[in-house]
Amino acid sequence: MGASTVKVRLPVLLGRPNADALFRIGLRFSTPSGGDAEDPVTAHALFDLAARLGSLEAKVYRREPSDEMDPDDVAEANRVVREWFDRA
User: Fold this and answer.
1) Is residue 11 part of a domain?
2) Could you tell me the pTM of the whole model?
3) Which residues constitute the domain of residue 60?
4) In this structure, is the dihedral angle defined by the CA atoms of residues 7, 67, 35 and 77, taken in order, positive or negative?
5) Helices marked H in 1-88 — which ranges?
6) Is residue 51 situated within a structural domain?
7) Which of 12, 77, 69 is nearest to 47 (CA)?
């Protein structure tokens, strides 16, 4: 498998968002609705952020996109989440 070309599109987050807000944003990227294109990599990253901040729903939802993603894309989403926590 080659390097991922998918870029995670985390929205601009002001301050420290709560887990429920991140979960709701992740839902927007997990399905093609609400004006956003479906983006399972970004959805996975947002669900992972929300889960790490305590959202039980996000723990369940983050598994769905990752089941259908290339392992390199999962790794990219996880890298972005680690970087976000390093900056926070």
Assistant:
1) no
2) 0.77
3) 19-87
4) negative
5) 19-30, 40-52, 56-61, 63-68, 71-87
6) yes
7) 77
Residue 14 lies in a domain: no
Give the model confidence (pLDDT) of 21-53 as tens digits.
889 888 888 887 656 667 888 888 999 999 999
The answer to whether residue 8 sits within a structural domain is no
- DSSP output for 33-55: -TTPPP-HHHHHHHHHHHHHTT-
pLDDT band at 56 (very low <50, low <70, confident <90, very high): very high
User: Of the candidates 66, 21, 20, which has an alpha carbon nearest to the alpha carbon of residue 44?
Assistant: 66
Distance CA 86, CA 42 (A): 18
Task: Say whether 18 sits in a helix, a strand or coil.
Answer: coil
Total of domains in the chain: 1
